[in-house]
Design goal:
The chain is 9% helix and 46% strand. The protein is mainly β and 198 residues long.
Amino acid sequence: MSLFRPLIRPLHCRLLAAALVLGGAVPAQAEKADRQQPIVVEADKPGVLDLQRQVVVFNGNVQIVQGTMIIRAERIEVREQAGGTRSAVATGAPGQPATYRQKRDGVNEVVEGSADRIEYDAAAGTLRFVGNGAVRRLRAGTVADEITGAEIQWDDAAQQFKVIGGDAASGGRVRAVLTPLPEAPPAAPAPASAAGRR
């Protein structure tokens, strides 16, 4: 019996960690089918689950995948908040930012972002890209919109991005490149009716 305990405990920790990481934390405008997909967490180093503090930490080339959502970072820390909501912080390595990517629901668009640190607050419904932030919206695989700044905040309920301050090289300026929607092709003229032809 004691031989199996070391095997059971890591499996239990992985499942609990996965549940803490993303259970119910998918933004409302993200691909709805993602919520029903399995959560896969991979890291180069062992994870730590602190049940007392309600914290899960993964280190070393961490990747979390659930359906179309992919988060990559050097370190990801998830906390259980009062009321059962979760907050998460994904931190990149020097020269390698944390990244986020997910398909939007009902449209052929993907939102992807990168920053030194990505913070998610399930209770507030916000995603913050802090330090060298860049967020792109891709339509059919092509970059349509891009926002860069020192900090970018995404408010899911309001469907609103807010960008704060640029880096020193830009003089503190923020930048947004917005592409208009493609024009719809003109409607074909209605065929002439048989009565109208003589």
